[in-house]
Each structure stands twice: as C-alpha cells, then as structure tokens.
Amino acid sequence: MQFITNFYTVFVQVLILFIFMGIGFIGEKKKLISLEGSKVISDIILYFVTPCLIINSLNIEFDRAKLTGLVICLIAFLTIQILSALLATFIFKSKENKSTGVLRFAIVFSNVGYMGIPLQKAVLGDEGVFFGSVCVAVFNIFIWTYGIICMSSNKKQMSVKKLILNPGIIAVTIGLVLFIFSIKLPSPISSAVGSMASLNTPLAMMVIGFNLSRSNLLSALKDKRVYLVAFLRLILIPMISLFVLLALGLRGTLLISIIIAASAPVAAATTVFSVKFEKDTELSVKLVAFSTLLSIITMSAIVALAQLF
C-alpha cells in the first residue's frame, strides 16, 4: 500500500531528526551541554544558521513558476495562521490568565524552523526548503504581531523594528533579491553559506532534545489541556489544511512543504515568549515536549497522506 510506503519513508526521516534530539537529550543529562550553552547554540541557529539555510535555498536561477509558488505558499500559510488564531481564540475564550495566552500561542505557532525546515530538506530537498523559507517568513511576521498581542494582551508591545530586523525576515529579503534578479553568490561565499546551512538540522534538533530532557513529561500526561492542544496542533489544523489545499488544486512539493510546516509540533518560541511575558512557563514546556514526542507519528502519517496526491 502506497500510504504505508510513504509513511515508512517519512518516518525514517523524522526518526533521524529524533536521533539528533537524542544527542541533545543525553548531552543535558550528562551535563555536557549547559543551559547557557544551549542558549548560545540557539542564538547561532537563529542569527546565522537558519538565515544561511534560507539564503542558500533561494540562491537559484529565477523561475516564474517558482515565484508563483512562493506567492501561493505565502497566502496559504498566512491563511492557516489566521484561521488557527481564530480557532485558538474560540477554544480558549476564558478570561485572560497566565495560561490562556500560552495555550492560544501553542495552537497557532508550529515549529516551522526547528522541525519544519529539517524535514522539508530531508523529504523534498532544496526545493522543499525553498518554499519552507516562506513559511518561516510568515511565522516571523505573525509571531511579532499576533504572537506579541497573544502573550502580552497589549498591542503596544508590538515592535515594528523587531519585525523588520528579524533574522528570518532579513534572510528571506536577501534571498528573494538573489532569486528574482538571478544573482549568484561568489563561489567562496556560496560554499560558506552552504556549509553553515548544513548545520541547521543537527543543531536545531539537539536544542529540542536538550529542552525535552529538562521537561517533566509525567506531569504533562496529567494535564488535559496538553492533550487538547496536541490534537489541535498536530492533527486537526494540518488535516483541515490538507483537504482545503487539495480542494484548491495544490499538489506536489508545494503542497507537502506547506503541510510539513502546518503539521509541526508546538513552536519552541512558546516557552521563550512565556518567559518574556511572565506567563505559565511550566505549561509551555509541557506543550512543546509532549507535542514534539507525538509528532514522530502524526507528522509521518499526515505527510505520507499528502504524498498520495
């Protein structure tokens, strides 16, 4: 059966990501990686590795069909984000407290950078990252607008400067200029960017593994909210996205790239923002950890299903 074949193929790729996570997990348990060290690695990924990955994927010869695909990807993933935000507000419409914003944030924001990009690269190659970079751009725009409001409950917390100067947005802008004008980076720079880009998958997964090691999964299993968020984030939203995009005629690499981004687990940024705005940090860690572990099955199944079309 084709679905089983697809599932196995994607599962193997996801399993490879989890092996890298295992290294980070062991690194924390054996005290080989400190909390400060993981923060440094995260900064390296955020400010250097992921931008290089995005620029590398967009540094190709201009193609009108690919440009059209980028625009479609932008509209599709932005729509998914907006509808997810509406769903999150409807599900958790109780009075604002330290948990409400965290729960809404977790439903809306998937781990497009740390989990999405590596899987797009593994399953689809550079073309998958090409479209995945747009999802990263949408994620960054939405997280510095809706995400800030969601966590802070204050529109004044939004920062246009942080939005414009975000590493992901800068990288996408540079990459689009290179792509649209068919500008090829000089060989030494191109090689350096490519080498830096190759670090994204192992480093990103190690950081996730490190954070998993510090989480209390037994506590997460006792919290009903964790199961609800996991269902919405890992199953309902990606499945609705898949069938709507299929109905609109999307197929192939573009479809699968969007679905990978939409089916990724709760974004690691959930914990970062919960700390920043003094929300329920313990809950955020539970949501990230639990959804990440479940994603080895859910992402494999949903991406395998998307590959059938």
Query: In the CATH scheme, what's the topology name?
Result: Na+/H+ antiporter like fold
User: Level of helix content?
Assistant: over 70%
Shape summary = globular
The mean pLDDT is 87
- Terminal Cα separation, in Å? 14 Å
CATH architecture: Up-down Bundle
Integer count of domains: 1
Number of helices: 15
Question: Would you count the extended β strands for me?
Answer: 0
Major sheet details: none
Q: What's the alpha carbon Rg, rounded to whole Å?
A: 18 Å
Low-pLDDT stretches: none
Q: Which sequence of SSEs, written as H and E, runs from N to C? A: HHHHHHHHHHHHHHH
Residues in β-strands, percent: under 5%
User: What's the CATH first level?
Assistant: Mainly Alpha
Protein structure class: mainly alpha
Written overview of the protein:
- This protein has a single domain, classed as Na+/H+ antiporter like fold (Up-down Bundle).
- The mean pLDDT is 87.
- The protein is built from 15 helices and no strands.
- It is mostly helical and 309 residues long.
- Helix 2 packs parallel to helix 8, helix 3 packs parallel to helix 6 and helix 14 packs antiparallel against helix 15.
- The protein is globular.
